[in-house]
Amino acid sequence: MRKIVVVLVGVLLISLCLMSGCTENTSKNNTVKDTDGDGYKDAVDAFPSDSTEWSDTDGDDIGDNSDAFPLDANETRDTDGDGVGDNSDAFPNDPSESHDADGDGVGDNTDYYPNDPTRWEQQSSDEFLVTAQPFLNKLDLDDSELRTYANTILTGCDASSTECFVNALYRDVIMNYTCLTAPMNSATLQTPQQTIQRKQGTCEDLSILLCSLLSNLGLSSYLVFTNTHVYAMVSDVNGDDLWNVAEQSLLEFVEVSFGEPLSQPIQQPVTLNPLDILYVGGLENQTYAFSGIIDYMTIEYTIESDQPLDLFIVGSQSDFFILKNGDLANFIPLEEWLQMTTVTGTSPQLDTYGGFILFNNNETHIATANVNLLFKFQPSFYGTYNKNKMTVYTLGGKNAVLLDPTAGDFGFPGYDAEIVGVKKAIDPLTKNYITLS
Question: What span, in angstroms and rounded, lies between the C-alpha atoms of 8 and 88?
Answer without folding.
Answer: 69
